[in-house]
Amino acid sequence: MLEKLLAAALAAAALAAPGLAAAAEEGVRLDPAPIDVANRASVQAGARTYMNYCLGCHGLALVRYNQLLQIGLTEDQIRDNLLFTGEKIGDMMVSAMARADGARWFGAAPPDLSVIGRSRGADWLYTYLRGFYRDPATPTGWNNVAFPNVGMPHVLWTLQGERGLEAPEHGKAAHGAAPRFVQLTPGTQTAQEYDATVRDLVAFLAWASDPTQLKRKQLGVVVLLALTLLAFVSWLLYKEYWKDVR
Predict the structure, then answer these.
(1) Which residue has the higher pLDDT, 6 or 183?
(2) pTM of the model
(3) H helices of the chain, where?
(4) From CA 9, how far away is CA 119, in angstroms rounded?
(5) Which has the closest alpha carbon to 131: 108, 154, 158?
């Protein structure tokens, strides 16, 4: 388990470093991700998108299928809708793609996404998944404003449609300005629907990066209340103990 944790952390760090550097160099403005990991409907919708579009290349080697019970799914729903190739409900959510195949097809093996929500941040993921555009100069025909020259193609393009990046007028490009896109072909979703799909996917990835975060926060509130009560009782005992001491 420790080896898997270290491998996933190193993979996420390797993915994060060049992307964050590129974002800083290009002055990309990150869009705030309107996510709520406590919204089970949103996280479940994101899990569905992840299973349909992402798991073929990107696994979640630190998350077990049965941990999806925490987002409101039942064991029957997990078995009937998420387990297709003989996996067991207690297995890790690993990708079927061999790392060697991924490296050959994309130039580098697609990283595990177990900790991507923490290493990249929700705002970066939200901007990245909404920042693809057509670029015939790249091997995949796609590029991304948040991660220039990324090897990953736009797997959600049928939903968003094809877009081109509108070049700013000479002398009018502001540092950190929002990129402008031109819709080349329509997708199956409207812009608002696609933004909602990405929001839910990012919410799921943020949850998967730390599945215990909600329980931990709830426990933290209970601990703070208990400490407050203990402090109040201690104050009463202090007053009672020293009331006759002059």
Answers:
(1) 183
(2) 0.77
(3) 2-26, 40-53, 75-82, 99-106, 116-120, 122-129, 157-160, 191-208, 213-242
(4) 8
(5) 154
